[in-house]
Amino acid sequence: MKRLLSFLKHSYIGLIVLFMYLPIVVMIVMSFTESRTAVQWRGFSFGAYTTLFKDPDVLDALITTLVVAAVSSVVSTLIGTASAIGLHSMKRRPRKVVESFTQLPMVNPDLVTGVSMMLLFAFIGIKQSNGLLRLIIAHTTFNIPYVIFSVLPKLRQSSDSLYEAAMDLGCSPFQALTKVVIPDIMPGIVSGLILAFTLSIDDFAISLFTGGTSMNLSMLIFSKTAKGGVHTKFCALSALMFLVVGVLLLIVNLRSIHQEKVAAEQKKKVMRKA
Amino acid sequence: MKRVRLSYPYVFVWMPIFIIAPMLFVLYYAFFRDGQFTLEYARSVVAEGTYLGAFWNSLWIALATTAACLLLGYPVAYILSNMKKRTAALISLLFILPMWMNMLLRTLAWKLLLFDGGVFQQVLSFFGAGKVQLLYTPGAVLLATIYDFLPFMILPIYTTLQKLDRSLVEAAHDLGANSVQTFTKVILPQSIPGVISGITMVFVPAMSTFAVSTMLGGKQVILLGEVIEEKFLSGTDSVLGVGSALSLVLIVLVILSMVIMNRIDKDNSASGGTLW
Fold it and tell me: In CATH, what number is assigned to the domain containing residue A205?
């Protein structure tokens, strides 16, 4: 009886995992079929991938995606890290207010973030034809919160006396930051940077409203597959995006699991000494 | 140099311009026309059939999605929380990854499965169900939203169940409760914060879905998000007002859910004190 129950439990989990991943697997399998539209399997071929990399629209969108991701992740990491260090030394009340506003882009549906930024751009006069700039600003904005909230925990773990000790030993405040504080919180900064880059290449909804005349990969896929059939080259493109984003997310998550472990061990050591 | 100053460029420039101002613009466009206050857009949102219809469509899809995710997701979270820690951590990673992944691509994957002559139809006809139309039906939209949001229900419930005090469960058993009683009287009540957080994490984004219905619903189900998308991307300025008023409906929903979430957070950890 107990064995049966445990078997049922495990099969249930298995079924749900299958439900989560079956569509993705089918998408990847379909990217290797010979036919042009992705409905039925017709023999193995790399054709979809070769057509994909010859398509000028795809290459344009790829460049847009990578430029936006690179610029927005670096800018948001710089702004986010500086803000996190500043926030950490703020008094409780103003800090809570800033943190609340910072959470807005994380809790707002992408649709709302997208349309509201579109209105802003219309108002301040960054034209549709300036798509790249619009995308970079929008992506930087939704990335900053993720950087802040991956750096803040690191600051809480590290000790404020390190910064003061560095200054007592003759560092200028700037040196204390660059030589002591920043190396100490580096793992959080790197995680934030990778996460920001990942979210940027993966974004669809916010880009759709802010992109104007520039198209990133997701916008291109949407415009070509929303209605009617699906060309297998878009299966290939989606498969590649799943792969890249999946690997990056796995890195971010494994890093955070590893860092928690390290923090827990350090805590144990300190406790033992005390 | 005080460290606080490092946050000033963000706190006094980036945040007001790019986070706060855009939200105010939605409010402004919803209630003003050429600088004049107007209730015209708000009125058409509550009076016009197309918008009301889209709202009800979104509401029932979001409610059904939330209910289905809860029914499917709670057992997953419960079973996971009873597993060995290492195994549970690994499996939960399998549910965390899709949370961050591109929803458009995950929806596109369903389109392949549901096509006429696609995998699902072949399976169904193998079992003698004949040729059933799957794509461009309300069912297809519902299936994909459940798929998209299920991890957002599992994770918060799993997190609360994981933190649950095991000794309470043992105490209930020692005091003679059977496993059903232990579940309904001890485990379930304690997992309610996770359940509520899961519900808001599914319901709010499900209300604002748009690409799913465009891709899988054909013209069968028009959703609120789809109407908003159309208003903003149609290229004319005159419809921005209605689009903004419709977006405001979503913003109100977000604020409501934040208020609810914050209540729960305060009750539980006394760590509250954020604005919403």
Answer: 1.10.3720.10
Q: B55-269 is classed in which CATH architecture?
A: Orthogonal Bundle (1.10)
Residue A149: how many CB atoms within 10 A of its CB? 18
Q: How far apart are CA A33 and CA A44, in angstroms?
A: 5
Residues of A in contact with B246 (CB under 8 A): none
Structural domain harbouring A215: 56-226
Instruction: Give me the amino acid identity at A32.
Output: F
The helix (run of H) or strand (run of E) holding residue A225 is helix A217-225
Q: Which long-range contacts (CB under 8 A, 24 or more apart) does A247-251 make?
A: A248/A194, A248/A197, A248/A198, A249/A198, A249/B96, A249/B97, A249/B100, A249/B101, A250/B93, A250/B97, A251/A194
Contacts of B99 in chain A (CB under 8 A): none
Q: What is the pLDDT of residues B148-197, one digit of tens each?
A: 999 999 999 999 999 888 888 889 989 988 888 989 888 999 999 999 99
Q: How many residues are given for chain B? A: 276
Which amino acid, residue B83?
A: M
Q: Residue B2: what residue type?
A: K
Q: Which of A29, A108, A207, A222 to mutate: most B Cβ within 10 Å? A: A108
> What does the block give as tokens for B271?
């760590």
Pairing outcome for strands B36-37 and B32-33 = antiparallel
Distance between CA atoms of A248 and B97, rounded to whole angstroms? 10
Interface pTM (ipTM) of the complex?
0.88
For residue B116, the chain A residues in CB contact (below 8 A) are: 39
Q: Is residue A165 part of a domain?
A: yes
Q: How far apart are CA A72 and CA A70, in angstroms?
A: 6
Domain edges within chain B: 1-38, 55-269
Contact flag B215-A225 (C-beta cutoff 8 Å): yes
Interchain pair A250, B116: CB under 8 A = no
Beta bridge partners of A44: A33
**Residue among A109, A211, B220 at smallest CA distance from A223:** A211
Token pair recorded at residue A30:
């379909």
A179 within a domain of the structure (yes/no): yes
- The number of domains in chain A is 1
Tell me whether residue A203 is in a domain: yes
**Using CB atoms and an 8 Å cut-off, which of residues 43-72 of chain A contact chain B?**
none
Q: Token pair of B1, please?
A: 């140099």
A108 close to B205: Cβ distance less than 8 angstroms = no
Across all residues in chain A, what is the average pLDDT?
91
Cα distance from N-terminal residue to C-terminal residue, chain B: 32
Confidence of residue B101 (pLDDT cuts 50, 70, 90): confident
What is the C-alpha separation between B241 and B27, in angstroms, rounded?
9
B54 CB within 8 Å of a chain A CB: no
Q: How far apart are CA B199 and CA B69, in angstroms?
A: 9
